[in-house]
Amino acid sequence: MPGPEASPFPKMLALEHDTVDLVDIDLTIGAATCRGLLSREERARAARFRDPRHRERFVVGRASLRLVLGTVLQLWPGEVEIQRGANGKPHLAAAHGSQVRFNISHSGERALLALTVAREVGVDLERSRGNLDVLDIARRFFAPGESAALEALPAEERTEAFFRCWTFKESYLKARGEGLLARLDAFEVALSSRAARVLWSTLDPADVDRWWLLPLDPGAGYQGALAVEGPPPALRRWSAPGALRQAFVT
Questions:
Q1: Helix (H, G, I), strand (E, B) or coil at 24
Q2: Is the model's pLDDT at 159 over the cut of 70?
Q3: pTM of the prediction?
Q4: The pLDDT value given to residue 104
Q5: Counting C-beta atoms within 10 Å of the first and last residue's C-beta, which end of the chain has fewer, N or C?
Q6: CATH class held by domain 1-242
Q7: Handedness of CA 32, 68, 102, 212 (dihedral sign)
Q8: What is the rounded CA–CA span in Å between residue 239 and residue 216?
Q9: What is the pLDDT of residue 128?
């Protein structure tokens, strides 16, 4: 996800309670025309990046987020007020009076944005890397059941399963608004290739019934996952909003 099934991003996007909309963002489209859409605080954050590539990708990601949210709220992107919670998770300002929830993940030259209504959501996108000692990382950071399940797999299946587990865990933490503050061994997820539950969590035992974890297929070289509050949603997939950028930015 989103691969060939992704639809061109619409000029108007009405979100639905039983659906999560996923938007694939190309971070290489060029930051120069996007910078004017950012808030003063976002421009200050961009200036702190030492690597120009990381700076430009941040700018494109935030501008694209504003374009999408502006489409949903029917506002000029610069009018969208985005705030950060206590642990840094972005959300719409209360002044908008909106129940829209969103989360965004960056990896390499891509970003993935998830949006829904009236329930929390988290998304994680990771560029797959084959040169990792996934067993060593799992033993050090994952819950014991996860590392044991990974070790039991054939060697050729471990890297894919590792990233599937990793993205499940990261999307769950992002949905909760924990970011990197929580230990990865404070909860356990299945290494499933299908929708799954949190198996147990010391962060909140009730989370085993609160969240669904859905694997995503972002395309070659990437893995992704979605954590969503409540029943499993339908997914709508949209391509990068390049046409929107051209429409709003002159």
A1: strand
A2: yes
A3: 0.92
A4: 96
A5: C
A6: alpha beta
A7: negative
A8: 15
A9: 85
Name the residue ranges covered by the structural domains of the chain. Answer: 1-242
One-character DSSP codes across 94-153: GGG---EEEEEEEETTEEEEEEEESS-EEEEEEE--SSS-HHHHHHHHS-HHHHHHHHTS
Query: CB neighbours of 19 closer than 8 A, spacing ≥ 6?
Result: 116, 233, 234, 235, 236
Rounded CA separation 250/79 (Å): 16
The dihedral region occupied by 101, where left means phi > 0, alpha psi between -120 and 50, and beta the remainder, is beta
Considering only 73-77, 89-93, 180-184, 243-247, which range has the smallest mean pLDDT?
A: 243-247
Residue position matching structure tokens 């969103």: 102
Instruction: Convert the pLDDT of each residue in 111-152 to its tens digit.
Output: 999 999 999 999 999 998 878 899 999 999 999 999 999 999
Residues 6+ apart with CB under 8 A from 173: 122, 179, 180, 182
Q: 104 near 113, Cβ under 8 Å?
A: yes
